[in-house]
């Protein structure tokens, strides 16, 4: 019933567009005096820190690769898995956004695995059963909300051994592909595309995609083709930025690691997503900029 109501709204908007008001210009010529009704698309991005604002690619994607005729909302959150994103209520927020009427189509892009791979109790999921089951449930609920699900394989990490990228998320990406194939869901294979890009760059150049500069030991190791073990977050972070008493209080500390991205990394991977999404969802091609 709700879907029928949304269709009625869209048809009413189209009808109002067809009933153009007319007037005359200074030379007596008939001209339209109204603006055509905009019926936009909407993209909602759901995922972990590799998608989240200030640590991932999705905000740059919305800012630089989506036309103004499409609303773009980044709901990526750091440290979340397919389990914890739902348990904390973030998934309910995403579904509520997916149900908002007035859009031609709403697309929900879903990218997880980094924290499903974690050993933290509230995050980890079993790769063989729980992780794909969680993705299946997300897909089904997006469709029930009247939106279009799009699955993304996880962004690669940038760890190397003897010049070869260690793509530890490859097995998890395989599970995402299986779910997409079984449920006939559009797939953006970000893992494959990002892994290929990072491998071409090599260990040392790939460090430029991080949020902060590596230290001398990390750079030297990468020059030889093998990255060091990531430093603890507290050690890898840049110094705190001083704040004024009445200024912004929200803090975000950039750090060097092989997972999260700074501005250069966000630009690179957002462009990859734009390219892959245009191929996976042809209806969005006119709304996606390279």
Q: What's a quick, concise take on this entry?
A:
This protein is of the alpha/beta class and 290 residues long. It has ten helices and nine strands.
Gyration radius, rounded: 22 Å
CATH topology of the domain at 38-201 and 261-287: Rossmann fold
Unreliable spans are 13-20
Instruction: Look at the structure and name the CATH superfamily of the domain at 38-201 and 261-287.
Output: SGNH hydrolase
Broad CATH class of the domain at 38-201 and 261-287: Alpha Beta
Largest sheet: 5 strands, parallel
- Strand ordering within the main sheet: 4-3-5-6-9
Q: How much beta, percentage-wise?
A: 5-15%
The percent range for helix content is: 25-40%
- Cα-to-Cα separation, first versus last residue: 38 Å
Element-level helix/strand string? HEEEHEHHEHEEEHEHHHH
Total helical segments: 10
For the record, the CATH architecture of the domain at 38-201 and 261-287 stands as: 3-Layer(aba) Sandwich
Question: Which structural category fits the helices and strands?
Answer: alpha/beta
Overall outline: globular
Mean pLDDT: 91
Oligomer: single chain
Tally of DSSP β-strands: 9
Structure characterization notes:
With 290 residues, this protein is α/β, with parallel strands linked by helices. It has a domain at 38-201 and 261-287: 3-Layer(aba) Sandwich (Rossmann fold), CATH 3.40.50. Helices cover 40% and strands 12% of the residues. The chain has helices at residues 2-18, 58-65, 84-87, 90-99, 130-144, 170-183, 190-206, 216-223, 233-236, 263-280, and strands at residues 22-24, 30-32, 41-47, 70-74, 106-111, 148-152, 160-161, 164-165, 187-188. The strands form 3 sheets. A 5-stranded parallel β-sheet has the order 4-3-5-6-9, sandwiched between helices. A two-stranded antiparallel ribbon has the order 1-2. A hairpin with a 2-residue loop joins strand 7 (160-161) and strand 8. Helix 2 packs across helix 10 and helix 5 (130-144) crosses helix 6 (170-183). The relative contact order is 0.13.
């Amino acid at each position: 019933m709700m879907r029928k109501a949304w269709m009625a709204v869209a048809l009413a908007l189209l009808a109002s567009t067809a009933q153009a008001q007319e007037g005359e210009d200074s030379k007596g010529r008939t001209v339209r005096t109204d603006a055509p009704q905009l019926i936009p698309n909407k993209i909602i991005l759901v995922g972990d820190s590799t998608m989240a604002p200030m640590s991932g690619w999705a905000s740059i994607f919305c800012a630089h690769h989506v036309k103004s005729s499409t609303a773009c909302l980044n709901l990526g959150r750091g440290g979340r898995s397919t389990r914890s994103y739902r348990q904390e209520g973030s998934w309910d927020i995403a579904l509520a956004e997916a149900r908002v009427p007035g859009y031609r189509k709403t697309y929900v892009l879903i990218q997880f695995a980094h924290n499903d791979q974690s050993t933290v109790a509230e995050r980890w999921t079993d790769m063989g059963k729980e992780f794909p089951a969680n993705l299946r449930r997300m897909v089904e609920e997006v469709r029930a909300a009247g939106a279009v699900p799009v699955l993304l394989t996880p962004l690669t990490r940038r760890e190397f051994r003897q010049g070869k990228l260690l793509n530890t998320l490859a097995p998890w990406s395989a599970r995402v592909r299986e779910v997409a194939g079984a449920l006939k869901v559009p797939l953006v294979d970000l893992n494959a595309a990002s892994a290929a890009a990072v491998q071409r760059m090599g260990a040392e150049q790939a460090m430029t995609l991080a949020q902060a500069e590596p230290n001398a030991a990390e750079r030297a190791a990468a020059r030889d083709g093998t990255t060091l073990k990531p430093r603890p977050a507290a050690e890898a972070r840049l110094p705190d930025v001083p704040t004024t008493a009445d200024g912004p209080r929200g803090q975000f500390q950039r750090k060097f690691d092989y997972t999260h991205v700074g501005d250069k990394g966000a630009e690179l991977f957002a462009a990859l997503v734009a390219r892959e999404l245009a191929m996976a969802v042809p209806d969005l091609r006119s709304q996606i900029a390279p």
